[in-house]
Amino acid sequence: MKFEDSVRGQRTSLDDAGLRPDLPPRPPGGIIGGIRARVPSLRGRSYSPPRVSSELGPAPEPPTPPFLPPPRRGFSSIQAGASGAPDTAPSSSRIFSNTSITTNSTVHSNGAEDSYGGYGPDDSDEALSDENQSALSEYPDSSQANRRHPVFKSGIRDINCRTYVKYFAVCGKYVCTTNNATNVWNIDTGQCIMSINHGESTKVTAIAFKPSVNVENEGKQLWVGTSHGELMEVDIPSQKITNTRASAHMKKEVVQIHRCGYELWTLDDGGKLQVWAPDVNGVPNLKNSPTTFRIPNKHTYSLVVDGMLWIGAGKNVHVYQPSSDSRIQFNIISRPLTPNKPTTEITCGAVVNSEPDKVYFGHSDGKVSVYSRSKFTCLDVVNVSLYNINSMSGVGDYLWAGFKTGMIYVYDVRTKPWTVLKDWQSSNGPVVQVVADRTSIWKVGRLQVLSLGVDNVVRIWDGMLEDDWLEKEMQQHDVEFCSFREIKALICTWNAGASKPQDLLTRVDDKVFLESVLRSVDSPDIIVFGFQELVDLEDKKITASKLPVVAPLLWF
């Protein structure tokens, strides 16, 4: 069924390096014949490192270019010289600074004078100090990430709830969304199959599917908690509220309903935790009396991990072991766990299959704190973004995170630094919730991940990342169905500095500059020109939309 199985009979030697031509060796330091070659970047999309200051010492001597240096750019303003007379720069000296020829990359930006005579600090990764390189390495490596949406080949891709939705739960083919009304949607068709209106004065603030002894009945009943402290049980097939407990939390808002095995745990904003144990039928019942515990009343997030309740209160973490058995100790640790690096309050959390001893908590400042489940210590605080992490979910071996920006990132947390596998724009506004439906594996035959945005649209994603897996498998087997040959590429960035093409004719060096650039590489197969500052940045009235498209003239 897998791609590798389908081609196994045709394989010759998958590891035969002779089938794929080797790349030409690169000398140390990233210099190829005097041409700068940029090393792969370590920075992520969400991080911009500080520019290198002059305190780092003088820059090394630049290599000698294989062609004439780019034209220098003067100043557009008039400056007074030593004698007091105005010192004006000719118009031809204002063109085309920071031109640089590279292989497979581009370099340079504007600012102070650089090693080739242009103006601008060297913003390439080679110019970063060891300290800055270390700071960059703390961020996940996004150099190999793609922005392809992980959608299923068949079925609907989103459910437009049409009304305001703050919470949702998923189990197999049912998605339940709620606020003033509880709606149940069929994932196969996208249709609303049940709707119960709770009235304007009642808001549902927590929701969870009820466990069942018979796995076929999973996802047919759900519990909802309200802002008045009421708990209700809803039966989806009959579309009725079958049971209620009005005084379950004594007028306190129910903020979370967790499932732990065959138990349901309900928490309110006053710090009351109630454990609803199974009855004689093996499932929790609102008619029975729960076991009550007290937790911090200012908690911002809660997560159940192997029968233990991890509470995020501010930036600290509390760990408890609630149980209907009085012989089990409730307080696991005597004092809260604190992060080993500065961070802000906890907003979300998750566990990942590939790292079973770790618990991950997302923070409002874009950091993720990592705690050990066995030692109850903070292992690390990882910088992943500058934006608020609204939700996280462990999906197989990877960590999915939804951000305030509407982006969803998929991280491989097994590497150091973490690796960004995917990132894409999920919604037009912030991502409210990301939930992995583990029951979908055996109920609908796929691993689905659902996300909710502030646009009130529930979107369905492929948790197995099938397209990425197929692409990776094809790359590993490319020697079996591809032929290879080496090509030469000439890539140039050209800071035009708002100059006109005829300005090249005003100086001798400018006349032969482009020809020298193109002749610097012998018979390139691909020539790429990138242009900067075609619009005069000092003229606020001119925009790029007012200028005609400029087609570069290339010759060999």
Give a verbal description of the structure.
The protein is built from 5 helices and 34 strands. The protein is mostly beta strands. Helix content is 7%, strand content 34%. The strands form 10 sheets. It has a 4-stranded antiparallel beta sheet, with no helix packed on it. Residues 1-57, 62-137 and 550-556 have low confidence and may be disordered. Strand 19 and strand 20 form a beta hairpin. It has a domain at 27-43 and 63-73 and 87-139 and 469-556.
First-residue to last-residue Cα separation: 50 Å
Oligomeric form of this entry?
Answer: single chain
Beta-strand segment tally: 34
Q: Pairing-aware structural class of the strands and helices?
A: mainly beta
